[in-house]
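Module 6 notes. Inverse folding takes a fixed backbone as the condition and produces residue identities as the prediction. Think of it as a translation problem where the source language is geometry and the target language is the twenty amino acids. Below is one complete input and output pair. Work through it position by position during the lab.
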C-alpha cells in the first residue's frame, strides 16, 4: 500500500521539477499546501494556469513582460524614458538581468540572449539572436554594448563571439570585469576569477 495518495505523489513529482527543489522539499511544499486548505491551492493554481498568457518575453529585449490590454508585451525597463537609450547590456538569462538591475549600476537597457554558445549542447552561433542585436544597434544608434555574460567557458566564448561580430559597427563593446567577491578569500578563488581580477586591476586613486 502506498504511503501517499496518487494525486499527492503526482503533485510532489511536478514540484520536484522546479530548479533547486528535490523530492523531500517538494513533499514538504505539497503537505504545507494541504494544511493551508483549499483557498491557497485555488489561488496558486489559478495564477499558475494564467501565467503563460499573462507573462511573455518582452518584444524588445526578450526579458519578461506582462501582456497589456492591447496584447503587447513590453517590459517596464524598455518603456522607461529615463533609461539611457544608447546603452545596452547583453545578458544570457532573465535571472542575470535581474541580478544586474539589483546592483543599481546599469541605467541603460538590455538584450537577453536566452542561451550561450555551447557546442556540447548543440548551441552554435546560428542559435544566438545576433541578427536582431545588430539590427537594434544600427536602428537605435547604440553608443555602447556591455557584454555581461558569466565568466564561464561558455560565457567567455559567447563574449568573444559577440565582440568579433560587433567589431565592424561603430559601437563600443565592453566586457564586465570579474574578480574576487567582497569578503572572499584568495585561497578559494578559481584560476579564471583570479586571472580576471589581475587583468582588471586599477590604481588606488581611480
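Target side of the pair, the amino acids:
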Amino acid at each position: 500500500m502506498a504511503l501517499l495518495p496518487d494525486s499527492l505523489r503526482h503533485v510532489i513529482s511536478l514540484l520536484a521539477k522546479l530548479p533547486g527543489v528535490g523530492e523531500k522539499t517538494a513533499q514538504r511544499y505539497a503537505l504545507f499546501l494541504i494544511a493551508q486548505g483549499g483557498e491557497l491551492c485555488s489561488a496558486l493554481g489559478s495564477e499558475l494556469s494564467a501565467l503563460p498568457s499573462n507573462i511573455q518575453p518582452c518584444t524588445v529585449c526578450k526579458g519578461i513582460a506582462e501582456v497589456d490590454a492591447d496584447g503587447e508585451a513590453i517590459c517596464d525597463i524598455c518603456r522607461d524614458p529615463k533609461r539611457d537609450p544608447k546603452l545596452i547590456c547583453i545578458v544570457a538569462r532573465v535571472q542575470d538581468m535581474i541580478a544586474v538591475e539589483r546592483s543599481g549600476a546599469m541605467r541603460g537597457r538590455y538584450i537577453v540572449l536566452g542561451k550561450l554558445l555551447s557546442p556540447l549542447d548543440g548551441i552554435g552561433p546560428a542559435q544566438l539572436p545576433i541578427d536582431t542585436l545588430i539590427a537594434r544597434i544600427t536602428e537605435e544608434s547604440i553608443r555602447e554594448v556591455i557584454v555581461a555574460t558569466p565568466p564561464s567557458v561558455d560565457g567567455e566564448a559567447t563574449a568573444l563571439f559577440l565582440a568579433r561580430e560587433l567589431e565592424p559597427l561603430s559601437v563600443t563593446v565592453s566586457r564586465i570585469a570579474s574578480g574576487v567577491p567582497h569578503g572572499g578569500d584568495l585561497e578559494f578563488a578559481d584560476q579564471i576569477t583570479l586571472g580576471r581580477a589581475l587583468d582588471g586591476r586599477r590604481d588606488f586613486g581611480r
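Reference fact for the lab report: The longest strand covers residues 87-91.
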